Queue: 3 jobs
Job 1
Amino acid sequence: MQIKDCFCSKKTSAKSFRRQWEDWRWQIKNRVTDVSRLADLFNLPPQQRTVLQAVAEHYPFCVTPYYFSLCNPDDLRDPILPQFMPDRRELMDEETAADPLGEKRFAPVPGLIHRYPNRVVVMVTTDCAVRCRHCTRKNLLARMADGNIEKRLPQIAEYIRRWKKIREVILSGGDPLLLETTVLYKIMRELTAIKHVEVLRIGTRAPVVLPMRVDAELCACLAKYRPLWINTQFNHPLEITRDSVEACRRLQEAGLPVSNQTVLLRGVNDSAAVLAELFNKLQRNMVRPYYVFQCDPVRGVKHFITPPAAGAKLSKCLREKLGGLSMPLFVADLPGRKSKVPI
């Protein structure tokens, strides 16, 4: 089955469809958000459809046509599919904490997380191009302050002004790049006007799951607010496509460094061979392999978590194989700690 063909109307010419496919707004508008459509595409039996529906009712589901097209539905070990496909195991993990890092506790104003003394995370949106099944905030996004970021921005900026030690502001969500460019412009202009804010950082999966979002207009906007660092999340070599490489290149040519934070996921990338290929490909495309995160112990993601000893073994193995610029730091984000903890 060619998944891409499922999104093309018989009345649409190949040229028109290609133009639509490359339009990020079309991709967002045509996200698969109904699991019944997913079940139809995969021709799933009734029992599996019922399970999918139950999971999606608890943990929302969506995937862009682009990212969906990267998976191979005929391969039971496909590494893309489990990153967006609802899984019954998500509902078999009630004993794990919903918010182990205490982000809700460290939110002094709606949409701002202040865990570390010198930096804050600003939740500019709760929307995502793809609802990653391993998401750290999968239990929080629905309850976090969303609303209109432009209305919340004055209160957020005022808090940052009061805390003079804050030198770095991280725009997160959801995915900040799902906002219109004009809205991003207003946010960054407001934050960079604060004298003690030295650096902005954007955490986004857009280059991976929605590379057409990284267009000339966006890059021109972002380039105005350097020093600005882009952190993205490639988890598998199959995600490094011509489109995703082009998205990263556009950011780089705008003077924006791109780093990558891989999440170690059981059954997806917990292999030295897979990770070595991933990191070498990233380096070859001038994307810095920055971190490998131990998957956070969040309710609903237990089936993705690898033992810390496995992460340590992978780190040691890769350090013996990779050059320094291909080798990321393996870390865990632990409750109550003031920095990432090396594995």
Job 2
Amino acid sequence: MKFDSIIVGGGIAGLICGIRCAAAGLKCTIISSGMSALHFASGSIDLLGRSPNGDIIYDPFSQLPTFIDQYPQHPYAKCGETVIAESLSFFTREIEEQSLQLCHNEQNNHFHLTTFGTLTPTYLSQQSVYSPELDRAFTESRKMALLDFEGFRDFHIPLVKANLPQHTLFKNREIITGTVPLTPLIESLKNPHEFRSIDISRMFETEKHLLQIAKSIDQLAGDGEIVGLPACVGFIKHNEVYSRLQKLTGRLIYEIPTLPPSILGMRLDHHLKSRFSELGGVFIAGDKVIGGKIQSGRLSEIYTQNHESTPLQADAFVLASGSFFSGGLISEFSGMKEPVFDLALSYEKDRKDWAADQFFQAESHPYLEFGVKTNEQLNPFDSSGQPIDNLYCAGALLAGYNPIREGSGGGVAISTGYYAAENIIKANAPIGAERHD
């Protein structure tokens, strides 16, 4: 099988790369071995949340030039400010084509509440997490209801409520708590304690359940004008359910990320895949790339577990297989490796330099900065140090950045995925193909 571009990895970097390629008229496929990290993510997109000394960054775009000068090997430095801005605009537009609204605070970061009751800076969030309306309400309203669901184990009100007063926004705010009953709604043999976020989100998408849940929320919230709920307010039909719930309760609904599986992240995953398919992209799920043929500095074909005897060929390839969590990088006693093409890596050779002394150390762990080395166009190097000029790398497997310390994970994934696609389009777009910029 022959394609214009083949992308290895179905996470946010791979998907945005695939959408950009497909939108430009390229015949594109994404090969994904399993569930992406989006199922475990907050569902918000971080751009640059903290400075190198740990200070919160409120205006990331104004800080990017200095940051890029300070870290010339950072993925942001290779993409450049223009590409970063373009990629985020493109990402927002393509998601909205699937009717999932993303909001930002002009050029500034906003804060979203975590499942532990802490606040963290981010750049883009779904409308149920941040919107101008919610922003005004949090400034003007003094009462908030914080509710969970009967038996739900992936969200803990006592933990959230204990941490909230540490933040100015919640310091003097009255918080009403309660639990929405689910037992009357259960029509199966399932116990509420077995319910995960996806089960509850499906209940929200059933009209009679939505009416009963809304009634319970109305009773439990008292005179709270904002209602904080675990992020379960619909999955496929989120917009419709969210709007309906606010009308039924007469309150603003604020979604808080839960422990995995994350409905907020799963929404992004679903809508990005839908957009890719809508543009004509081919998504191959449940297969794993196990190697490829590299000759004279070019990758000509790859092999997968399910099609080992049938190579997949393309003019260009993108490796967006993730970091250690997704198996894109592998740690061994003797060192580290990239398992598909044995690409050159940047990492400390002494294992004692891989991790910080404390798990929750503010500076985070050094291993998060390890990864594949690339040139300025995101082409990696083979084991002998030669660049592979039609292979690009994007997302979490890249070296030179720390997504936890910087608060930059989503921004790096989107900008490098987009930048890889732009480089492919310039080299491989069919003559006369329509460009959807």
Job 3
Amino acid sequence: MPSKMQKPYLIVLDVGHGSAAILHDEGGTVVFDTGKGAHVARHLDAVGVKCVEAMLLSHADADHIGGAATLLMNKSLHVDEVLLNPDSSKDSAVFEQLRYALAEANQRVGTRINPKLTTSTHIERKGATIEVLHPPDVKALSGVGGKSASGKRHTSNSMSAVIRVSCGRKASVLLAADIEFDTLAEWKAQNGHPSASVLVYPHHGGMPGTSDKTEAALFGFEITRMVSPEVVVFSNHRTKFGNPRDEVISAIAKVNGKIRFACTQLPDRLHQAAKSDKLWSLHKPTEPNHVIEGPICLHFHNAGIRVCWGEPS
């Protein structure tokens, strides 16, 4: 049965260590990354979606595209268009499967393949606006493996597409994929404005292309200062890599002590904080020893974004 939940809303699915978000608005459905496995397929089936207008894949890492081939090969689901940037560095089985599935879907049902997801991508929908804030067109020309102005090689992560989904001036979500310091530097140099009500934090709350904790904290502080969110979401696995990292959490809180955190999976070490710390009040237990976690629904409305838990029925 189709979902009766009021639209528009964006749901950040619980895919463990990975990223997958889905926009449902008056114009239909858009998928942003797929995580691994069949999480997105199960969600779409549960809410009765038979057509996806667009699937935007931020970059070619398996934890962001692993479920895309499943969607494209599903004969009960029609995907109109897939947007992603080329990545000649990826020779993984997952990326090969995606390329095969794209070719098959294009031949079978006419799925359009758009190998460009850059700052010139702007989609006005009935209910929401989709903007790409990174990478710039000029940077995309060199692609993964090319060099930045500083001489640093572009990686799959540094070329991640950053996508902002908005419904009015006060309600927006920034999907930050796995960007690193160079993206922040570009925004500063170009006087970019990546502001959003909700930030889906890059690297699942982990290390942004560095093993240095001080650098990770600096990155957390800088991206939070630039985006100025009210809520920071971590799409994470509760035991992998210690995400979200304590140094990241502390750095974000230094920017604004009124920010609220939300994890798709809440690590055990944060359960006590969920019971007493206002930063984690969105996870406040509904009953003793039971914190709230799982898929995170972000409902757009005129005054901002309302956060709730669980998949719609």
